[in-house]
Structure formats: structure tokens, C-alpha cells
Amino acid sequence: MVVIYIGDELTAAGFRLAGAQILLPAAGEEAASLAQARGDGQLVLVSADVAARIPRELLGAALAALAPLTLVVPDLLGRQPLPDRAQRLRRQMGME
To answer: Pfam families, from UniProt (predicted)?
Structure first.
């Protein structure tokens, strides 16, 4: 299985030790890195920090697709919090 991590260098070091391929996008290259990873990998892990800089519709399509499985994961530095899915669901149901 080809696992690709897109994110910061510090967090990437751990994923590299686990056998993942790494993409460290420069500013403005986040969407292109996601497209490349989705073409090459079977599991794509995107740091929350990088995910915040990818256009919402592109990231949403990647997360909704069945293949390759794409997930947003925290980075070691915690610069960007993970999305609160429970809050989003409550808002969509009119509970907030």
C-alpha cells in the first residue's frame, strides 16, 4: 500500500520512518501536492495546517472520494486545529 503524507517536515519525519512517502509543499503548492498524492497513493494523509490552505471544494472532494482514502491528521506543532465534525453536524441539523 502506498501511503503519502503531505505536511510539515517535522511531522513528516515520523511518517517517513513508518514507510510513508512524503510531500512538503511550498506555499501555494498545497492543492497541486494533494492532486499528485491522490494520483500516486492509496492512502493520503494531509496535515491540518496544509489542509487549511487547500481550497475547501478541492479538499472536500478528496475527503468524500472512496479512493484514494484521504484523511486530515494533526501535525506535531498543532498550528491548525482539526475540524470539529460534531459541531458541524449539530449546526447542519439546526441544533446550534
So the answer is: ATP-synt_F
